[in-house]
Amino acid sequence: MTTILEEAAAGRARIIPWTVDKYHRAITEGLLNEDTSHELLDGFVVQKDRAKAGEDPMTIGDRHRVAVLRLAHAARLFEPFGCFLQTQQPVSLPPVNEPEPDGAVVRGRIDDYLEHPPLAGDLFSVIEIADSSRHIDLGPKLRAYATAGVPQYIVADLVNDCVVVHEEPREQMYSRVTSLSRGETVRVRAGVGDVELPADQFLP
């Protein structure tokens, strides 16, 4: 017996994706909880996975947790560049994506976004901490960020203990990909300049 997703993949059923507007409406009307446990990817409401590879996806891995805390601690470094670093908050990539990346460097001030999440044009860099979520971070999320034209996408790959920097978006991919190891420096885009952070900061 096949699932509806398998039927759709075989061309025997058509799935109508959720749009960003429908997603917001569902939250406003109480059909979805407004929390950090899910996000909208490719028109599907997806449970977020922050677990250690091989462990219960409902848990938060310790390395993932510490990496996000380290990111948050670096937020003050971005303010002199006329931008700010948000952690685990939504970015809106209409029509069918509203991920909640582990980090995002956003143009302007926090209060500029009282009415809506940052859009692709507001983003200088997006950061994901990839452990058991690695296949999503380097698959659907990478495509979503590249398609939207996000200039830089940084993936802290905890499985392979490296930081992968994606730049120069072209359609659904990035044309320049650099892998950095411990001891090297990650240059995070911040609008008029870059914030330099050690790769080790992303890799607890």
Largest sheet: 6 strands, mixed
Query: What share of residues is helical?
Result: 10-25%
At the first level of CATH, what is the class? Alpha Beta
What strand line-up does the widest sheet have? 3-4-5-6-7-8
Unreliable spans: none
Helix tally? Answer: 6
Structural class: alpha+beta
Which CATH architecture? Alpha-Beta Complex
What is the straight-line distance between the termini?
A: 43 Å
Strand content range: 25-35%
Number of domains: 1
CATH topology: tt1808, chain A
CATH superfamily: tt1808, chain A
Shape: globular
**Roughly how many Å is the radius of gyration?**
17 Å
How is this structure best described in words?
This protein is α+β, with helices and mostly antiparallel strands. It is built from 6 helices and 10 strands; from the N terminus they run H-H-E-E-H-E-E-E-H-H-E-E-E-E-E-H. The strands form 3 sheets. A 6-stranded mixed β-sheet has the order 3-4-5-6-7-8. It has a two-stranded antiparallel ribbon with strand order 1-2. It is globular, with a radius of gyration of 17 Å. The termini are far apart.
